[in-house]
Write a structure and sequence with these properties.
225 residues, single chain, four-stranded antiparallel beta sheet, 10 strands, binds magnesium ion, six-stranded mixed beta sheet, alpha/beta, Rossmann fold, 8 helices, binds adenosine-5'-triphosphate
Length: 225
């Protein structure tokens, strides 16, 4: 059964639809790269998949259960426990330290505070930013914030990871560290991973690539090569 199944998603902010009928299914342990030009609807799609925006029509299901048409409160609850979301611009909480930001999902998920902090420290170490644990997001670089945002999305070992250009601010070595961590979440934990990226090399390492244009998935990229 698909971990994530989106069918016929449409969403308009104005006269031109940002999503014009998008369907996408992602299975257990599957990694899917979403590519496409700026403004083609990639972030909008991710926000709908994450339950942050309700589509005008169409539906998102998680593990065969309704998701997009739950109440705001139920969607938040499901998102916090079962999803890991990396936003395009990191969106860490500025008043918390880096390690507190990363621990938060594990703590919300019911883990003890100390255990959550340990898991968070492990991920910060994996991403080469353990020494920044006690700084605030405003006191680190953009790429360091981005790595912390990926750590925050993985700390509670979610069944579905939605990552919006998580390597956009990173050099190739750190980009590869992030990609490896996302891949491990898929291969080791069986998570479904949707990765929005402009980097063809990273996309080609995913199981499947799809291309968006003008709010639609036009073709699996592989079919265009
Ligand atoms: N909150 C909003 N209000 C109005 N229009 C929006 C909003 N968010 C996105 N849009 C519009 O919807 C379209 C799709 O935007 P989206 O952010 O999904 O693109 P994207 O593919 O993620 O682009 P990028 O690669 O630049 O991040 C764009 O035309 C954008 O201007
Ligand atoms: Mg975007």
């Amino acid at each position: 059964m698909a971990v994530l199944e989106a069918s016929g998603l449409t969403l308009s902010f104005g006269p031109t639809p940002a999503l014009g009928g998008v369907s996408l299914a992602v299975g257990v342990g599957e990694t899917v790269a979403v590519m496409g030009p700026s403004g083609s609807g990639k972030s909008t799609l991710l926000h709908c998949l994450a339950g942050l925006r309700r589509p005008d029509s169409g539906e998102v299901q998680l593990g065969g259960e309704p998701f997009s048409n739950l109440s705001d409160r139920s969607r938040s609850d499901v998102r916090l426990r079962r999803l890991g979301v990396v936003f395009q611009f990191a969106e860490l909480l500025p008043e918390l330290t880096m390690v507190e930001n990363v621990s938060l999902p594990a703590w919300i998920d019911g883990n003890a505070r100390d255990a959550s902090r340990k898991s968070a420290e492990g991920l910060l170490d994996r991403f080469g930013i353990a020494h920044l644990a006690d700084r605030h997001p405003g006191e680190v670089s953009g790429g360091e914030r981005q790595r912390a945002a990926v750590a925050r999305a993985l700390v509670h070992e979610p069944a579905l990871v939605l990552a919006d250009e998580p390597t956009g601010a990173l050099d190739s070595v750190n980009g590869q560290l992030v990609l490896d961590a996302l891949m491990d979440q898929a291969r080791v934990q069986g998570a479904a991973v949707v990765l929005v990226t402009h980097e063809a090399r990273l996309a080609s390492l995913c199981d499947r690539e799809v291309l968006m244009r003008d709010g639609r998935i036009v073709e699996p990229v592989a079919a265009l090569r």
